[in-house]
UniProtKB/TrEMBL annotation:
<keyword id="KW-0539">Nucleus</keyword>
<keyword id="KW-0812">Transmembrane</keyword>
<keyword id="KW-0256">Endoplasmic reticulum</keyword>
<comment type="function">
    <text>Able to inhibit growth in several cell lines.</text>
</comment>
<keyword id="KW-0338">Growth arrest</keyword>
<dbReference type="GO" id="GO:0005783">
    <property type="term" value="C:endoplasmic reticulum"/>
</dbReference>
<dbReference type="GO" id="GO:0030308">
    <property type="term" value="P:negative regulation of cell growth"/>
</dbReference>
<dbReference type="GO" id="GO:0051726">
    <property type="term" value="P:regulation of cell cycle"/>
</dbReference>
<keyword id="KW-1133">Transmembrane helix</keyword>
<keyword id="KW-0479">Metal-binding</keyword>
<dbReference type="InterPro" id="IPR001841">
    <property type="entry name" value="Znf_RING"/>
</dbReference>
<dbReference type="GO" id="GO:0008270">
    <property type="term" value="F:zinc ion binding"/>
</dbReference>
<protein>
    <recommendedName>
        <fullName>Cell growth regulator with RING finger domain protein 1</fullName>
    </recommendedName>
</protein>
<feature type="region of interest" description="Disordered">
    <location>
        <begin position="248"/>
        <end position="284"/>
    </location>
</feature>
<dbReference type="InterPro" id="IPR013083">
    <property type="entry name" value="Znf_RING/FYVE/PHD"/>
</dbReference>
<feature type="domain" description="RING-type">
    <location>
        <begin position="290"/>
        <end position="325"/>
    </location>
</feature>
<keyword id="KW-0131">Cell cycle</keyword>
Amino acid sequence: CLFSYVCHIFSMAAEFLVMLYEYSPLFYISVIAVCFTITVAVVLGWFGFDVPVLLRSSDEAESVLPVPERKMVQVMNPFALEMGSTTASVIEGLLLRPCCLEDCVLSCFWGCEMQALQTALQKHQRELLLLTHLLFQEALESSSLHLQSFNASVQKKEKEEHFTQMPLDLGVRDFGMLPRNRYPLVAVLTLAHPETRDNYNIAASVTVIHVPDDKYRLSARILFQYLLTAQGNLLDLKPLFMSADTCSTTGTTEPSSSTQEPEPQSQSQGTKREESDSEEEWPDTQGRDCVVCQNAPINRVLLPCRHACVCDGCVWRFQHCPICRAFVLESFTLTNRGAEEEEDNVEE
């Protein structure tokens, strides 16, 4: 079909050139020939346009530029927060399950103003004030409808559920129609003891949660999470996506070492960084196969789609994600294989 189409184009072009030749403008003939050559080159993909792979040669496919690798640094995150499995609403309340490496303080701000939260986060970037739960309370309590704080009950490495609820006597059943100017619930985790704050680069965790009400019945879910560092940066904690038969990475996982890329600080929303869990947090992925070669374990996360689906060898062969076909801008590793092999050799 393609061959007949090309032949038809050549025949039409030949007839057109003959007609022009009868009027003898040699310049017109040259222009038409150049335009025809450029058109054929575009159709066949000689200039790298996104044409079907069948029209490209194998040599050209192998010459695709490799996906750049994002350099990451390891940071210890002591905070983790999950929602309980029970149904939640503004009237019935919500179960939160923190699991932290140290004793923490959980502060729940119901009906927190959006502008107040963003102002507090920017204030942390400029003045480094929001490092303790008391300073968080001072920054957000006046702009929230209700504050519930669990000062002494969040013990380290214990997954105890904590029930938080908007008091019924306030008469708040919803937060208005969309667009809103208040978040339903903002949960803040900070370290309880001053002596432990110097051991971690992460000073606090801020989790914005949607809770259904009478006006907006979307199920309860975590909207976004921020990690605040002691240096005044914001890390945007994002989920990674894997196939259902390997590991679910949506939501917040156990606190552990995470890898991050140092990036320039932003003035408004802070630094946004991709978060990935350490090898201890990915026990199932070590024996899982790459979706491309089915021979090596998954060890690469593609950006910006954040699909963890390929190994170190196959990531250089593709410019599109094998799962969602999104264009891959860069990638990062889940575990540092080279460092692990060197450590094994030293132990031997």
